[in-house]
Amino acid sequence: MEKKCDYLIIGSGIAGYNALKELLNKKPTSKIIMVSSDNYYPYDRPPLSKDYLKGKMEREMLFFESEDFYKRDNLEVILGKSVEKIDTKNKEAILSDNNVIKFEKALISTGGRPRRLNIPGEEYTLYLRSLDDTDKLKAYASKSKNAVIVGAGFIGVEVASSLTTLGIKTTVIEVKPYIWNTFVDEKISKVIQTYFEKKGVKFVLNESIKEIQRQGKLVVTASGNNIETDMVLIAVGISPNVEMAQRSGIEVNNGIIVNEHLETSVKDIFAAGDVANIYNPYEGKRKRIEHWNNAEYTGKLAARNMIEKNESYNFVSSVWSDIFDLHIESAGDTMNYDEYVIRGSFTSDKPKFSVIYIKDGIIKGYLIINRNVKEIVSLNKLIQKRVDVSNKKEQLSDESFDLQKLLS
């Protein structure tokens, strides 16, 4: 059976949902079809590792819209199915049930899937990416006393704080020498780690997992340590879902390659969210960005460009998290810098600081903990405008100085 639409959205995550909303707003009479391998209408993901896992948020609160929102004559949402291949010449998407959707423009927003370790006993471990994953994790947590988390990135530490709050003794194992190693240096990492340890989280660093024995009840590390546990969560990042794009002849290299308008190597087919490999003008390089804000932005931008708006990517991508009583925000490039300036209270007792990263006299990124929104807004603008702060280090580190003044 063949269906027809003006716009096809493949994936129902943050990017796909925001693209859908933008298309409905800008082209309310167009025919839109969304195809998702998920079994549910679009829902928010950040609460999965925090409030929903802790039981502080009801399930229905995760969903962006009620089911009635999707009941429109010009909209069809196909759940529990995947697009296996796109016939790019004829603009046809072949689904997993062999149905075909003919489209004018398409957006690939297939996101990613949890990365596997490929070790013995991994079949007894848990992952956290979807609502079903979290429901399974909650069921385990309800009868567990000890948990092991492999990976000290955002998801690993967020889940560790949630489980600790629930009274579960949690050990986080990280192969690198310090936590959050992909976006902070060791000095800053240690301050944050010490704070988490005071809250009850245990970290085992410079260590990897060799195998999992006794049906998920015993973790054996590479150095030979045995850790008894009731549950094991693997949180070592995601792999982009690019297989369908590859089968369709769309250029792929660490994600789906897109231009500044988010169009792929094939005309009229776009990509957004975690799966898109974008040239970042503020960092001067291509990258995939696995952040909520970027998924929202690129979903909307792709939708507008599918409507022939011809807008270029121009966004300072940021990531945030709430862990225990810390509100954390980070944006820009926090790894490629010459120096950084610390603004605020840089202690592990009650952290409240900003780390401002500078390269060639220009602010490239920041990490902020428990600071006000005004400061975040000012720093985003300073990054965007590429303001030279070579002779402004004292003002940057002075909490009483209004960063907004550097923009005038």
CATH homology superfamily of the largest domain = FAD/NAD(P)-binding domain
Output the CATH topology of the largest domain.
Answer: FAD/NAD(P)-binding domain
Q: Sheet with the most strands?
A: 7 strands, mixed
Helix/strand/pairing category: alpha/beta
Low-confidence stretches: none
The portion of residues forming beta strands comes to 25-35%
So, CATH architecture of the largest domain? 3-Layer(bba) Sandwich
Q: Mind explaining what this structure looks like?
A:
With about 400 residues, the chain is α/β, with parallel strands linked by helices. It folds into three domains: about 1-110 and about 240-305, FAD/NAD(P)-binding domain, CATH 3.50.50; about 115-235, FAD/NAD(P)-binding domain (3-Layer(bba) Sandwich); about 325-405, 2-Layer Sandwich (Enolase-like, domain 1), CATH 3.30.390.30. About 20% of the residues lie in helices and about 30% in strands. It has helices at about 15-25, 130-140, 155-165, 185-200, 245, 290-305, 375-385, 395; strands at about 1-10, 30-35, 75-80, 85, 90-95, 100-110, 110-115, 145-150, 170-175, 200-205, 210-215, 220, 225-230, 230-235, 240, 255, 270, 275-280, 285-290, 320-325, 325-330, 340-345, 350-360, 360-370. Strands 1, 2, 3, 4, 5, 6 and 17 form a seven-stranded mixed beta sheet that branches. A five-stranded antiparallel beta sheet has the order 20-21-24-23-22. Strands 10-9-8-14 form a four-stranded parallel beta sheet, covered by helices on one side. Strand 5 (about 90-95) and strand 6 form a beta hairpin. Helix 1 (about 15-25) runs parallel beside helix 6 (about 290-305). It is globular and about 60 Å long. The relative contact order is 0.12.
